[in-house]
Structures are given as structure tokens and as C-alpha cells.
Design brief:
By secondary structure, this protein is an alpha/beta fold. The chain folds into two domains: 147 residues, NAD(P)-binding Rossmann-like Domain (Rossmann fold), CATH 3.40.50; 160 residues, Lactate dehydrogenase/glycoside hydrolase, family 4, C-terminal (L-2-Hydroxyisocaproate Dehydrogenase, Chain A, domain 2). 42% of the residues lie in helices and 20% in strands. The protein has twelve helices and 14 strands. Strands 3-2-1-4-5-6 form a six-stranded parallel β-sheet, sandwiched between helices. Helix 7 crosses helix 8 and helix 7 crosses helix 10. The longest helix is centred in the middle third of the chain and has 18 residues. The N and C termini lie far apart (50 Å). It binds adenosine-5-diphosphoribose. The site of adenosine-5-diphosphoribose has 28 residues, from helix 2 and helix 5.
Length: 317
Amino acid sequence: MHVFTMEEEVARKKISVIGAGNVGATAAFLIAQKQLGDVVLIDIVDGVPQGKALDMAQMGPVELFDAAVDGDLDYGATAGSDLVIITSGSPRKPGMTREDLLHTNANIVGSVTENVVKQSPDCIIMMLTNPLDIMTYHAWKVSGFPSHRVVGQAGVLDSARFRYFISLELGVSVEDIHALVLGGHGDTMVPLPRYTTVNGIPIPQLIPEDRIEAMAQRTRDGGAEIVNLLKTSGYYAAGASLAQMAEAIILDKKRLLPCSAHLTGQYGIDDLYTGVPIKLGGNGVEEIIEIELTEDELGFLQHSAQTYREGIALLGY
Ligand code: APR
């Protein structure tokens, strides 16, 4: 077991998670378990963030992690956070698209972001609330932060889904499968089989084209498949994806991950947030990586990003 020394104590990071619901609580639990820093859960339902935090803290002696986990209704508890993860919002119900949630969640994300920024003017904001690429743009605008300090989680989850389906298809460990899914977190997302490999072997060499397309489509529908079963959004894989991104930021790992980032002409897309490969480290989005795409792939990516232009306009941008 790792016991924190005085020196480490001073350097301990603070991660706040706004929205102590299914995804927020899952992310907070995994972040505490990874001992990335002290965790604060915030919600509007009295008792929920406090109760979940206490329960999580009491898991520490069993799982052997030393992390302070606190829950509160008051943003004062988040003061001086290094990273703030926003998961507050209304979840999807069966038949609802992520876009249906636009106005409800824009109001929530707007007020949450104002509160976050007051308490933690130097933090990095990580967005999870849907419609993801629009909410990330909205939080960026409301925060007034430089865009490298506002990032959205989507591609890590979408790529994880694609990786899982490939592992099922081939009967190969998920560990050996790396996938790249770009574009918006919606029906237009862009799985890239040419950049998806099994220990370096591109999947088009291992799987027939029609099967790849079937898995790509199941990935695009991955959220809805779970909503239809569970009657609400999935949260284990989304929470884990947030925790992986939090780890990249807090430990300054400089992971290369598909995330929603603000584009200013890269891939021919300007002033939109969408999923692209980025270098994620202590400064947030440290680099947007422009990979070579075929005309078709680029077209799909641009189309995906453009579908969010209308949503942003609906919010008055
Ligand atoms: N401030 C803080 N918390 C809020 C606010 C707010 N203004 N409004 C709602 N919440 C909280 C809810 O009380 C709830 O605990 O956000 C939490 C959301 O949790 P869930 O309903 O369990 O939703 P979850 O499955 O975690 O999904 C979170 O991800 O899929 C997206 O858009 C979807 O908004 C959803 C988000």
C-alpha cells in the first residue's frame, strides 16, 4: 500500500466532479482508487454527494487507497481544484437523441461552469454532459478559459466500445486492440478501421469489410443499445474513460487519446469542438494531432463536426 509522505501531501491534487449521478460517481470512485488526488463530489440533491462520498471513502480501507473523498452542495468545497469534471445534467431516456437534451443541459452546464470558474480559475474542465461536443463548446465559452483547458470525453469511450466489439469478433484480448474513433459523440462518429490495430496489425487485414462496418455501426449505436436495455445511459465505461483522461492530466502522462477539442482550422474545421487525436497532459489539450485521412474519412469527420454547428447556433453562438 502507498502511504502519502508530507512532501506528496503538499503536492496532492484536487479533482472535483460535478454531478454525483451514475457517471460522476463511477468516475469519482475510479479516480479515488487510482489515488490521483482528493476528490470532491457536488450535486444539487442534498444527501447524494455527501452520502456517496462517505460510502466511497469507506471503501478505501478495503481497496487500500488513501484519498479524501468529500461531497457537498456548495461549490466552496471545490475551491482550488486542478481538474473539474462536469457530468451534471439530465440523462437520455429511450428514444431520445443526445441532441434532444440540448437546452435542458445547456442551462445546467452554463450555471455549473460559472460556479466552477469562480472557485477554480486555473482548473482544467473536462466535459461529459451530452450533447457532448456542444456542451464542451458551451462550457469553453462560459468559462472564458483558453481552449486547451476545456476538453470533452467521448472518443475514449467510443474507441473502447469499438475495441470491445473487435475483441469479441476475433477472440483476442482487449489489451492488444487499439482503436481510433473520431468525430462527434453521436450518430455521425467516425470509427477509423485503418488506424485500428491488433498489436500493430490493421484490422482490415484480419476482419472482412462487412464485419468491420457492422462493428463500426454497433459502436455508433453503442450508447442507444445500452439506453434501450437499461432505460438510462450507461456509466461504467463512461466513468472509466473520464478517469483515464483524469490520470493523463493529473500525472501529466501526455497520452495520445481521441478527445473533443476546439479546432481552429485543423482537418478543415473551424471554431467547433469535435473528437480528434490529441496529446493530453498537465496543461490539458497540449497538441491537436493531424493524421492523414482519405478523402472519404475527412469528409465523414467534417460532416460529423458540422452537425454540431446548428446546436451551437441554437445556444446563440
Ligand atoms: N448542478 C449539479 N448537479 C446537477 C445539476 C446541477 N445544476 N443538475 C442535475 N444535476 C445532477 C443530478 O442530480 C444527478 O445526480 O447530475 C446528476 C446526473 O446524474 P444521472 O442522472 O445519474 O446521469 P448520468 O447517467 O450520470 O449522466 C450524466 O451524461 O449521458 C450524459 O447528458 C447525460 O446529463 C447526462 C450526463
